[in-house]
Amino acid sequence: MEGSNYSEHIIIDPNVRFGKPVIKGTRISVFDVLSWLANGMSQEEILQDFPELTGEQIRSSLAYAADREHKLRIA
Question: Would 26 be classed as within a structural domain?
Answer without folding.
Answer: yes
